Automatic annotation (TrEMBL):
ATP binds at G10, A11, G12, K13, G14, T15, R127, Q178. Its main location: cytoplasm. The keyword Lipid metabolism does not apply. Its EC number is 2.7.4.3. It comes from the Bacteria. Pathway: Purine metabolism; AMP biosynthesis via salvage pathway; AMP from ADP: step 1/1. This is Adenylate kinase. The gene is adk. GO terms for molecular function: AMP kinase activity; ATP binding. It catalyses: AMP + ATP = 2 ADP. The keyword Transferase applies. Transmembrane segments: none annotated.
Length: 200
């Protein structure tokens, strides 16, 4: 079961990924974690990534896809995986599709958590206010200003993925504004048919 979860920051992807991991026993693959692990392990693609990162550059799509390609060969990912934070662009989605096809694999599901952006900003503002009220500092990436920037980046770079996967007939949507357990139930309803395919 190979899954991509889409949705803007704050949509609840992290929470739902954890529940999918628990339910189906497949790993959640974060590109940031995979990059760090590949660099630490000194794999060929990890060494290439390290050189780019040390020079202050951005790691190319080719390198990131190479790291994903290596990671999904590991035993825990043989039955499937959830991709977290990747692909971020249509170009990455195309490269991912080609890489999977070269291994005789394809995605099982692309699920978008649909959320109301104004409500998300409201949530972040409330969270920041509650944190301050407790006398604690608000994390930099939890401020409404930074959150709005992250939303804008998502809209320009990542939101086009919805149309890309919809054109391929692969996109399914779940209402991310529902209570967390209801979102989980709707996600599981989409994924259960693929679980049978994994088991067989």
């Amino acid at each position: 079961m190979r899954i991509i979860l889409l949705g803007p920051p704050g949509a609840g992807k992290g929470t739902q990924s954890e529940r999918i991991v628990q339910r189906f026993g497949i790993p959640q693959l974060s590109t940031g974690d995979m990059l760090r692990a590949a660099v630490a392990a000194g794999t060929p693609v990890g060494l290439e990534a390290k050189a780019v990162m040390e020079s202050g550059g951005l790691v190319s799509d080719r390198i990131v896809v190479g790291i994903v390609a290596d990671r999904i060969e590991e035993p825990d990912a043989r039955r499937g995986f959830i991709l977290d934070g990747f692909p971020r662009t249509v170009a990455q989605a195309e490269a991912l599709g080609e890489m999977l096809a070269s291994k005789g694999l394809k995605l099982s599901a692309v699920i978008e958590l649909k959320v109301d952006e104004a409500a998300l900003i409201g949530r972040i503002e409330n969270r920041a206010a509650e944190t301050l009220a407790r006398g604690q500092a608000v994390r930099k990436d939890d401020t409404p200003e930074v959150f709005k920037q992250r939303l804008e980046a998502y809209r320009t770079q990542t939101a086009p993925l919805s149309a890309y996967y919809a054109q391929k007939g692969m996109l399914q949507t779940v209402d991310g504004m529902q209570p967390i357990d209801k979102v989980t139930a709707d996600l599981m309803a989409v994924l259960e048919p693929h679980a049978e395919a994994v088991a067989s």
